[in-house]
Amino acid sequence: MPREEPLLAPRPSSEQSSIRNAEEEDALLTGERTHRSGGSHRGWGFWRQVGLFAWALIATVAVIVIAVVYQHETSRAQSHEKEPWGPGGRPTGKRNLIFMVSDGMGPTSLTMTRSFKQLTQGLPADEVLMLDKHILGTSRTRSSSSLVTDSAAGATAFSCGFKSYNGAISVLPDHSPCGTVLEAASLAGYKTGLVVTTRITDATPACFASHVNLRQYEDQIAEQEIGEHPLGRVVDLIMGGGRCHFLPNTTDGSCRADERDLVAIAKEKGFSYISDRKGFDSLNGGTESRLPLLGLFAEKDIPYEIDRRTQNDVYPSLEEMARTALKTLSHATENSEQGFFLMIEGSRIDHAGHGNDPAAQVNEVLAYDKAFAAVLEFLEEDSTPGVLVATSDHETGGLAAARQLHDAYPDYLWYPGVLANASHSSEYAANELQDYLSQNPEKPAQETYTRSLLKKALGIEDATQQEIDSLLDPNSPIIPAYVFADMISRRAQIGWSTHGHSGVDVNIYASSSKDAWPLQGNHENTEVGAFLADYLGLDVSAITNRLQHSEYWSAASGPESGNVAAEDGKFSWLGNPFGDDVRTDGLDTYHGDFKRKRGLVGDECGCGSVH
Ligand SMILES: *[C@@H]1O[C@H](CO)[C@@H](O)[C@H](O)[C@H]1NC(C)=O
Ligand SMILES: *[C@@H]1O[C@H](CO)[C@@H](O)[C@H](O)[C@H]1NC(C)=O
Ligand SMILES: [Zn+2]
Ligand SMILES: [Zn+2]
C-alpha cells in the first residue's frame, strides 16, 4: 500500500487577521482598546452594490449545485443500501484494520513533544512527528453523562459507536450491552488483537472485548477477555500489563477478589501464556507466536517509557509489541479470507497527564509515534490492503505550552530543555524517595538524599528549601509525585489546569485519507466507531441484538454473587449497575462546586484505577 502524504495542506493565514491579532495583543499589553473600524468611507455605496451582486451570484450557484448534488445522491442511495464512500471507494476483499488510541493525548501534547524532539535531536523547526504528517481531522469527545468524558465512555464510542456514560464498558445508558467492532470482526472470521501499556483490564481494551456496568469490575473484565463471554472467546491476541487480575487472591502479586486462577483457565481454553521479556522474545518477532496468545508483562502498568528504556531487558516497548502483534496476526491470517482487527493503545500518555508530568508525557508520545510509524511501515510492506486510524479518547491535564509563574506579565516561552534533563518520571522519583524515607529516618540525610535524587532523576539542581520541605513532610497535602511533577512543569513553564481530563477536541490520524475519507474534518467520537465497523463491513447491531438476548451467567456474577442485577437474571453478567452516584444520561448542572472543601490530593486521584 503506498502511503499517502500530507493530508491537510496548511492554509496561508489571512494577513488581515494577523494584523488584527497584533492589534489585540498590543491592546492587552497597553490597556488600549483596538480600533477595528479605521479606513475611509469613500465609495461605500459602490462597494455595497458590488457586494450585493456577488452575494446574489454565489447564492444562485449554490442553489444549483445543491440541487444537482441532491439529485445525484438520491439516485445513488437507491442503488446502494449504505452511504456512498468517498475518494477511495468502498473497500472490498481481504483487508486489515489497525486502530490506535493515544489515551489522554490532546493537541498540546503534540506541540510539546514536537518541540522536545526537535531540541533533543537537533532538528529544524519543520521536522515534525510522524503523527503530524498524517492528521486527518478532529474528534468531539463528550459522553452521554458529561461534557468531559472518561476513558470508558470514550472507548465505548469507538467500540460500539454509541455515546454512553462515564464508567460504562460497552454498555448503553440503560445498562444493556452493545456489540463491539472487535466482537463483530471475530464472529465474521477476522483475527483480533489488543496491545496496551497499562492493565489489559483497563477501560480502553476492556471496551473492545467485554461488557460491564462499571469500569472498576476488572476481575469480570479479565474473565470475559479470556472467553467467559456470551459470545465465547473473541480476542486472539492479548499483550500488555494487568497480570494481577488474572492471578488467584492466594498468590503474591494478585489483585483479584477471589481465588480463581484465570491464567490456568486461559491455558485450558487453549491460550499460550507468556509473562516476561523471555517469553516475549520467544515469539521471535511474531514468527513463533501461537494463537490464542495471552501476554501479561507487568502486574499492573508497564513502566513509563522514560523509566522502561533502562529496563529494556524486563519489559518490551509499545513499538516492539505492535510489530510482534502485526506479524503474528498477518501470519495467522495468511491463508484465510479475512484479515485482522488490531487495537493498539498508548495507554500511559493519559497517566502522565494525570500526574501532570511533562517529561514522562513527551517520552510516552514519542513511543506512541514510533509505534504509529511501525504500523505505517507494516501497511506499506504487507500485501493485504489495510488502514490505520488513530485518535485519542480525550485530553488529560488541561495541558498548556506556557505558564505564568509570577505577577509580572509573562515572557512568551517555555523550555523543552528542562524536560530533556529529566531521566525518569515523577512517579519513579516518588517511589525511590518513599523507599529511602521508609528506611532512613534522619532528617539531614533525607534532605541530602532528596537533593541528589532530584539531580539524578529529574535533572533539577536548584530546588528551594520550601520544595524540599514539601517533599519530606509526611503530612503534606500534596503527594511527592505531584510535587516532583510540579517542580519540572514550573521550571519548563508548562501549565496544567487539572489532574483529570478536559473536554477539548482531540486529533484523528490515518494512514491514508483515501481509505479513511469519512473521518476528514470534525467528528463526533461515535463516528470514529462507525467508521471502524464500516471499513470492515461489519454489522455491529446484529451483535448487540445477540448480546441483548443472551442468557448468560458468569461464575462471578450469578445470583449467589450478591449482585443486585442478578435478581431478575437479565444482564447479571454486566455486574451491579448501581455504583456510587452513577449518572448515565444528561448533564449535571452547577451547584456551587467551587465552594466545596478540597479533598486530600493523592487519595482522591484514583491513580491506578480510574482514568
Ligand atoms: C480469596 O477469595 C475467596 C473467594 O474465592 C474469599 O473467600 C477469600 O476471602 C479471599 N481471600 C482474600 C485474602 O481476599
Ligand atoms: C540541564 O543540565 C545541565 C547539566 O546539569 C545544565 O547545565 C543545564 O542548565 C540544564 N538545562 C536546563 C534547561 O535545565
Ligand atoms: Zn482515557
Ligand atoms: Zn485518564
UniProtKB/TrEMBL annotation:
It catalyses: a phosphate monoester + H2O = an alcohol + phosphate. Binds 2 Zn(2+) ions. Binds 1 Mg(2+) ion. The chain crosses the membrane at residues 50-70. GO terms for molecular function: alkaline phosphatase activity; metal ion binding. Residues 1-24 are annotated as: Disordered. Mg(2+) binds at D103, D202, T204, E345. SUPFAM superfamilies: Alkaline phosphatase-like. GO terms for cellular component: fungal-type vacuole membrane. Keywords: Hydrolase, Magnesium, Membrane, Metal-binding, Phosphoprotein, Transmembrane, Transmembrane helix, Zinc. The active site is at S151 (phosphoserine intermediate). Its cofactor is Zn(2+); Mg(2+). Its main location: membrane. It is found in: Membrane. Its EC number is 3.1.3.1. Zn(2+) binds at D103, D350, H354, D393, H394, H501. InterPro entries: Alkaline_phosphatase, Alkaline_phosphatase_AS, Alkaline_phosphatase_core_sf. The keyword Ion transport does not apply. It is a single-pass membrane protein. PANTHER family: ALKALINE PHOSPHATASE. Belongs to the alkaline phosphatase family. This is Alkaline phosphatase. The lineage of its organism: Eukaryota, Fungi, Dikarya, Ascomycota, Pezizomycotina.
